[in-house]
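ok so for the tutorial part 2 we go from a plain amino acid sequence to predicted structure tokens. step 1 is just haveing the sequence, like this:
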Amino acid sequence: MSEASALDTLRAAGFAGAYACALVTGTGLGGIAAGIEDRVSVDYGQIPGFPGAGVSGHGGRLHRGRIAGRPVLVFEGRAHAYERGDAAAMRVPLACAHGLGATRLLLTNASGSLRLETGPGSLVLLADHINLSGLNPLIGEASDARFVPMTDAYDPALRARLRAAAGACGMRLGEGVYAWFSGPSFETPAEVRMAGLLGADLVGMSTAPEVILARFLGLPVAAISVVTNLAAGVAGGAPHHAETKAVAARAAEDLGRLVRAFVAGLPAEETCHG
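step 2 — the prediction. this is what the tokens look like for a chain of 274 residues:
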């Protein structure tokens, strides 16, 4: 019921139409919304079933408008599983993105790096994830649709578009595997070492449940991580939230350039509002 009510509310607010892309911004990365042309905005609190803005660095607003001439939806901030113990906290927003006609999803986040060569300020394209949280947003889903295949969950075609966009911008875009910890406490050095042994390049507290939900909804999805710190114990790394917000804010300009180039390269035939 909340998904239907949310869609009704958004359509009444002028959000109906096709969108080339929906975008979710991570901690300190909401500045992307400032570059939206012809912007129309609504607070999450005004939309039935949407989460409240419970973490500093997350604005809690939904925007529609244009980036590089293409119609987009931008979710400024996300809810995290650690806020209320709900891994499906972003289910209604993502269902609305799908219901409003978004044809693909781009996620962004802030993360800690396990690799010295991928230091703070680096942008990393996610190739896969490891779920170390013990949670899943589809727990409780009754239909057989809950058995979501996760091979190539991070869409290869979208990843290729993002690499091409980075090349056009003259930007370095690494690629890596993201390990999802539930948070909200940061990982211990021992946990970081474990994640590295399992094949992770980055650690963080979001994104993986949204990827699972996107695949459940049938939305192709890609994700870009902004490295805000070295993970705990890596070259003396001792992450804290203030550092995450500060470094993310400094890297937001590069991320914004990449997002604009990516959106500009999306097929024009899919981008007209209804």
